[in-house]
Amino acid sequence: MNMLTIGAFARACRLSPKALRLYDELELLRPARVDPDSGYRYYAVEQLERARLVAWLRRLGMPLAGIREVCALEPAAAAREIRAFWARVEADTAERRDLAGFLVDHLAAVTAVPGKDTTMLELRYSAHSDRGLVRPSNQDAAYAGARLLAVADGFGPAGAPVSSAAVEALRFLDTEEVPAGNVLNLLEEAVRGATEAVRDVADPSENGTTLTALLWTGSKLALVHIGDSRAYLLRDGGLFRITHDHSVVQSLIDEGRLTPEEAGSHPQRTLLLKALTTGAPDLKLHDARRGDRYLLCSDGLTAVVPEHRIRELLTASPDPEEAVRSLVDAANEAGGPDNVSCVVADVV
Questions:
Q1: What region does 58 belong to: left with phi over 0, alpha with psi -120 to 50, or beta?
Q2: pLDDT for 2 beyond 90
Q3: Of the candidates 198, 176, 171, which has an alpha carbon nearest to the alpha carbon of residue 276?
Q4: Beta strands 220-226; 230-235: pairing state
Q5: What backbone phi and psi angles, to 5 degrees, belong to 283?
Q6: Element (H or E) spanning 252, and its range?
Q7: pLDDT, tens digit, for every residue of 24-64?
Q8: Does position 179 have pLDDT exceeding 70, yes or no?
Q9: Based on the number of CB atoms within 10 Å of its own CB, is 159 exposed (0-12), middle (13-18) or buried (19 or more)?
Q10: CB-based contacts of 149: which residues, under 8 Å, 6+ apart?
Q11: β-strand partners of 345
Q12: Burial class (CB in 10 A: 0-12, 13-18, 19+), 90
């Protein structure tokens, strides 16, 4: 076996001797031989490929625990894991980009010239929840107000009271003036209250709910999201999904193991990875523009009405109430297999 000293091996794989010693201690990259007298480490030439993979993954920013998992996988499985990791990195980067943009705008507004004319924006909104044509009861909850928009999709024996409790716990936000500077903190605290309210209503081991909500500050929208209900933005004729499903099929899509078209008929398409009491929600800020239209909906809509049709209906309806009705009708015309809830709000 061809052996390299730790210095030669470090130069060949672009890892420092210090890093190699750390990876040895963590059992991530053990030397092929350690001199029993001097303790000096020697590496086999055959270990270079693994060492280079470790170096590349570190450059990606992958944590050491993740690197250990990837290195233990077969190449195809390792590739899927790296793809999934990068999808999470991009989602996190997008959140931080939104926050940075908000801070820049907020601080710029603080230093703006006093007395400068500004155009006030507000929401025009409508909400509707429907049992559908198959389910015996409606476990969805939907709410729309001047500051708060929310959709929750309950599941389990107490799904209906659970979803209602989640939305009801947020309704106090609709009556308070929301300062833009700490809106995410305020929303995060309110969601913690909603989580406790859900736990008080029913056993969280058997029941749960999704939650997707937008909180209006007068110029921006703060989004909280967990589960597979969704939020969309219709802007300049284009429809953009601004939430990421926390579901089994979405994770398979992220990993490249499933196409969006295949997801619709997958046997695990209703299984969630996170719900309100079982994980941390996503929190984001969105800049609002005059003419924007936002849609919040349960999966009773998106499971049976394709996005191109949703865009057509949102574009064709002149006001939020008509848009909501047309979307619910479209879901029922497609068989109405599930409860369907929609909230539509225009920035005017």
A1: alpha
A2: no
A3: 198
A4: unpaired
A5: -130, 130
A6: helix 248-254
A7: 888 888 999 998 888 899 999 999 998 889 888 888 888 88
A8: no
A9: buried
A10: 123, 125, 127, 143, 213, 214, 216, 294, 296, 343, 345
A11: 125, 294
A12: exposed
Is the CB of residue 179 less than 8 Å from the CB of residue 217?
A: yes
State the residue for tokens 């672009």.
14
8 A C-beta contact, residue 210 and residue 228: yes
The number of beta carbons lying within 10 Å of the beta carbon of residue 331 is 27
pTM of the model: 0.68
How much is the pLDDT for 119? 60
Q: Are strands 211-216 and 220-226 parallel, antiparallel or unpaired?
A: antiparallel
* Confidence at 338, pLDDT banded by 50, 70, 90: very high
Of the pLDDT bands very low, low, confident and very high (cuts 50, 70, 90), residue 23 is confident
- Tell me how far apart the alpha carbons of residues 227 and 286 are, in angstroms, rounded to a whole number: 19
SS3 assignment, position 209: strand
Residue 117 has pLDDT above 60, yes or no: no
Amino acid making up residue 286? H
CA–CA gap between residue 320 and residue 326 (Å, rounded)? 10
CA dihedral 184, 187, 192, 194 (to 10 degrees): -160
Q: With 90 as the cut, is the pLDDT of residue 193 above it?
A: yes
Tokens of 104: 């820049």
DSSP state of 247: B
Query: What is the token pair recorded at 24?
Result: 């040895």
Give the chain's count of helices (H) and strands (E).
12, 14
DSSP state of 131: -
| Integer Cα distance of 142 and 213 in angstroms | 10
Residue with tokens 């196409």: 259
Q: Scanning the structure block, which residue is given the tokens 């233990």?
A: 72
Sign of CA dihedral 181, 187, 193, 196: negative
What residues contact 229, with CB distance under 8 A and at least 6 apart? 151, 152, 153, 210, 211, 212, 243, 296, 297, 298, 299
Beta-strand runs (E) in the chain: 3-5, 33-34, 41-44, 123-130, 140-144, 148-155, 208-209, 211-216, 220-226, 230-235, 238-241, 282-287, 293-297, 340-347
